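Students often ask why inverse folding is considered easier than folding. One informal answer: many sequences map to the same fold, so there is more than one right answer. In these notes we will look at a single instance of the problem. The structure comes first.
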């Protein structure tokens, strides 16, 4: 009986997907949380500790914000790595388009959230000389490719509910905001993710289609103002996206939806619900390699190479997830170790797969729709075929 039940349950979760298979090993680097501030500096760190926040317990306590030097060091490493066509490795950077305007919120007595868009600069008290130029230089060199993460990483409705509350949560939030720190997620998961509200009772729910659409239109506007081009790829904060998110992205011209690891899904278009042709026009990509050295000492380049080999063996791109914290150096030098390990990782892949290609999300979209993509000096052709995969639809939201 139990077996039958288990089988029924499995059948419910397994589905066949018309996915794409590629004739060459493709490497995609996807990176979240760029432009989002954390703990500003040592002074901010000390201030928070003096206010009773016991910083230093987990890696994300050391999350700050990249500096111009962090970005330049990354750009220089990527530029040294070339694929079989001579194209450099390229990192897709998912940007958070606004930060909390802490001074304004405080002047308003914590009644509501005020934001400062990245196009208008960093919030008061935050100082990162040359950072925006460093982004631009990397983009011009073709080694950085900006994409959309969201406007805020946290759910604004959830944060606003706690902003004024007299209890422990409100107190922690106000302590952080007074120190110029928006949140530290592991200490306060109740602030949720941009499109997903954890709710009063811990039962997570997506925001309405209209609310999400409005947020996404605003985010795309800011993105376009900052980068002079609209985004073609997006990744929802916490990987919390539903049909409404995909629909709103598609309406804004976004062609690629980045999904978290898990589920071993090949790149594919959703075709299950014919009613929403906009959402169905978005190409779904799933990360296949977790490259997160900041998470701990047990990180292994060898294990990452094996995961990339698994992807190639299945004919799907190796889609590497590496969050921005790995390149930070302000509060703790994560950058040096990450760059050394990333260098080792890319070198291993290049020597094992002399025909590999470094591609961006939008190149994959072009490949599956046209069979070619444009590189700086040439048009690159890759054989793409459709194959039915028996993919396990693990809800990507289960692993954020
Ligand atoms: Zn994120």
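Output (designed amino acids):
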């Amino acid at each position: 009986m139990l077996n039958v039940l288990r089988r029924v349950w499995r059948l419910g979760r397994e589905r066949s997907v018309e996915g794409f298979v590629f004739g060459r090993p493709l490497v995609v680097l996807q990176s979240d949380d760029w432009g989002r501030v954390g703990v500003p500096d040592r002074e901010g760190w000390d201030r928070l500790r003096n206010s009773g926040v016991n910083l230093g317990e987990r890696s994300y306590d050391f999350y700050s914000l990249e500096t111009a030097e962090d970005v330049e060091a990354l750009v220089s490493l990527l530029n040294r790595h070339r694929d079989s066509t001579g194209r450099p490795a390229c990192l897709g950077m998912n940007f958070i388009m606004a930060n909390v305007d802490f001074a304004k919120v405080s002047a308003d007595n914590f009644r509501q959230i005020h934001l400062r868009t990245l196009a208008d600069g960093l919030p008061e008290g935050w100082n990162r000389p040359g950072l925006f130029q460093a982004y631009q230089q990397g983009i011009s060199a073709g080694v950085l490719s900006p994409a959309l993460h969201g406007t805020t990483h946290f759910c604004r409705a959830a944060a606003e509910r706690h902003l004024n509350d007299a209890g422990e949560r409100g107190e922690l939030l106000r302590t952080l905001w007074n120190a110029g720190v928006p949140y530290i997620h592991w200490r306060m998961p109740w602030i949720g993710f941009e499109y997903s509200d954890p709710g009063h009772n811990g039962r997570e729910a997506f925001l309405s289609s209209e609310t999400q659409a409005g947020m996404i239109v605003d985010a795309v506007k800011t993105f376009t103002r900052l980068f002079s081009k609209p985004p073609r790829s997006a990744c929802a904060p916490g990987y919390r996206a539903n049909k409404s998110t995909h629909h709103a992205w598609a309406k804004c011209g976004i062609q690629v939806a980045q999904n978290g690891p898990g589920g071993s899904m090949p790149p594919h278009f959703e075709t299950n619900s014919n009613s929403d042709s906009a959402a169905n026009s978005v190409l779904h990509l799933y990360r296949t390699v977790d490259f997160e050295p900041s998470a701990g000492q047990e990180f292994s380049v060898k294990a990452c190479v094996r995961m990339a080999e698994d992807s190639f063996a299945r004919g799907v791109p190796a889609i590497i997830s590496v969050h921005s914290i790995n390149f930070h150096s302000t509060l703790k030098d994560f950058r040096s170790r990450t760059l050394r390990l990333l260098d080792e990782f890319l070198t291993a892949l290049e020597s094992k797969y002399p025909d590999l290609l470094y591609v961006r999300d939008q190149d994959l979209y072009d490949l599956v729709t046209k069979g070619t993509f444009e590189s700086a000096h040439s048009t690159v052709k890759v054989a793409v075929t459709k194959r039915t995969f028996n993919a396990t639809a693990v809800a990507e939201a289960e692993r954020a």
